[in-house]
From TrEMBL:
Pfam families: CHRD (PF07452), VWC (PF00093). This is Chordin. It is found in: Secreted. The keyword Signal applies.
Amino acid sequence: MLDRRALRAALCVLGCAWLHAGAASRLKSPALPIQSEREPLPSKGLSGCSFGGRFYSLEDTWHPDLGEPFGVMHCVQCQCEPQKSRRGKVFGKVNCKNIKQDCPDLGCEDPVLLPGHCCKTCPERLDDKKQTDSVLDSFDYFLEKDKEKVDDLHKSYNDRSYLSSEEVGSEESRTDFVAVLTGVTDSWLPTSSGVARARFSLTKTSLAFAITYKRMDRPSKITFLDSAGTAAFEYRVPKGQSHMICGMWKNLAKPLMRQLQAEQIHISMSTSVSRREEVEGKIIKHRALFAETFSSTLTSENEHSGMGGIAMLTLSDTENNLHFILVLQGLIKHKETEPHVVPIRVQLVYRQHILREIRANVTSHDPDFAEVLTDLNSRELFWLSRGQLEIAVATEGRDPRQISGFITSRKSCDTIQSVMSSGDALTPGKTGGVGSAVFHLHDNGTLEYQVQVAGLTSDFVGLTIELKPRRRNKRSVLYDLTPEYNKATGRAQGSWSRLEARHIHMLLQNELFINVATAHNQDGELRGQIKALLYNGLEAPRHVLPVTLAGQFVTPPVRTGASGHAWVSVDRQCHLNYQIIVAGLSKSDDITVNAHLHGLAEIGELDDSSATHKRLLTGFYGSQAQGVLKDISVELLRHLDQGTAFIQVSTKMNPRGEIRGQVHVPNSCEFGTRGEEEEDGDDFLAKDAEELKKDPQTCFFENQHHAHGSRWTPNYDRCFSCSCQKRTVICDPVICPVLTCSRTVQPQDKCCPVCDDRKELKDVKTPEKVEEHLEGCYFEGDQKMHAPGTTWHPFVPPFGYIKCAVCTCKGSSGEVHCEKVTCPVLTCAHPVRRNPSDCCKECPEEEKTSAALEHSDMMQADGPRHCKFGKNFYQNSDNWHPWVPLVGEMKCINCWCDHGVTKCQRKQCPVLTCTNLTRREGTCCPECADSKEEADLMLKSPDKRKTWRH
């Protein structure tokens, strides 16, 4: 459903668009066919809705009547929904939606459309069940989120690329967990003010984890504790500046896996010994994780409070409703006696202004809380996309306690990527080309992208990020990357700084696609679904571009619909790590989906007669292959260093290579594997204090023992860094890096300044500075917030700024009112426009012939020559079919422009005397159902299969 503002904007297209033309008052047809009325309700004590000049009671439903010549919109259903104000007063709100998409699929060959109905029915069963509306009004949305599995694309269009990862049986199964880590308050150990959020993904025997933390130094060690409290696994955190920790726990024993599934595993995280802080929490499974697209870590301003929490949030698929679940720790005081009820207050805040507030009760033994914030307006969605909304949770009573945090897009160590193939194009093909894309989503809503394309069969035309098309030839383009594409290099690099909250949600739900169009394939030669690649312990996918794999790179070239990309790296032990992703292989390649993927992947394919350069990699699981090669020959390592190695993926259909790509991995492994002896201090696990004393290579400094190879910051000066090298302590001054951000802060416990958390991100195009005002107006054209009372020229893509109109922000209501600029009356016979961007014409010094009509001319209020209808302009005598929001084009109604006046008329239908009337697809008038002759004519009609929108 649409909220009131979106409804008003959508339904005003025919008569109340943002420009109120002076000619609108001269329209003979209704200027506003469908509009939510603002007239007062019939009685102050009666709650309901006023719509279209009528009053409706709460819960009433109806089909809106647009009046002549449009009539009743049977495919649009409106409802008067009861709402509660903050003071508890009940009022009605009108919501309308198109119900044609809910029509059932019919098995008969010739369904008919009965007069007064929206959906077709089979002639032999006209009493089919009525349409029902599915309204998600509870948090069961997280459990029952309905993925669209059937689309109405033309049969020649490809729909395999829209399968979600949950629907592909060959993909690895995974289980997601989460943990909230807070300071320990009931222990003799030093505590912490920090709060951390950890997310885990279990696949087979490996547990990947992504941890973010606040209000604490970067941890040095992460410990997993089993049900008995014993350390089951320790992870040494590598040094870095990021507040994200990515790691893997490989080869979990089965007893530990059972404990993990039973929520008996705890996790603790501690900082260095010199300033020890520790946070801990229990790892739990949660139903909300799979649908989460936004998140927040909640902290307390109080020191060492032991309070914290997380919020998991997601948007509804079709409505602007924000669902969230709170997992709280330490906020509710837990008593040993019976559970008691605790009142809490949840607020949505923007710059210390409360936008929404919810009051509820939770129990001390189960403090989790779920709720829905309904009908977010455009300003709230805008702030949500920019990471500027804050969620605050507080207890009420004698001892109020509060935690809060900013809402940002979901944090993850996964790689957002896409493989574009011709097999997944809207019209599938076998070109042998490849496209590869990697994305990075920042907290401020900026999407950074890097794209590389190779092997196109014709000239490049366009590169776009798109939604799934609803039907043939109706591609839904969200963002055009074409201007950033370099044809010489086949690459595009840049950022999209105006990502909306809805787009962020779709991106993280794997619902966006990237498309490459060419001269011979205007709809797209290559296409791929943008997906999150699960973190597997390798850092390469998070920092470097993959190697592209294509049939065009095979010798001789292979015309295949498949393509792929691969990340390859060589670690310090000279082990080769690889991860390969393949897309576009069709089921016709073999009987099963996996058959075409357990072909061999070969590296170093230089000479078929030489087997010394070949190494067999692990077989594929689903569309991926990953693994580690440890015993690599010196010659093969040299080929990798020189860029003369290859990755090749083979199938049963093409055993000599389906796709391949050239690999260049610089390394210094001329002497083969170095082994484990050159272990760096970052990988050194902290030893027990007693063991350190016994180690002859240990350093003693500032009353502490330090292991050989370890590094630390001395207490006497934060601007020095010390290391232990075989009983010798070496301290060097810290050289601060040059910062490129606009705002920096100086942490008290750090030597070097750091970029502010709210900084503009490095290497990302800085979004236009938005002057945001809480009580202002959000304008869709320029996607900016405007202060109350300010005026501006509207920005209308693709024309730019329209100087013939002036928009005003109407105070705290948040409404934008736009008017046409009134031009002065001119006395000359041939006025001219001095500049194309000027609104009003002027009298020239010399009479000149007026230029050809431009878009700005259409907005000139100096004559009734043109008509404005909805968002379109028409010249005199133009004819068109009107377009009605939620319904579409009204092909049975003709409109024309008569000297500045829009006139519309419905097609006249003959009077029928029969009682059994039907309306067949593609016709405007009803007909007698018993007329076999007319039915035969309809079957022969070439337009029978055209979509009928009303």
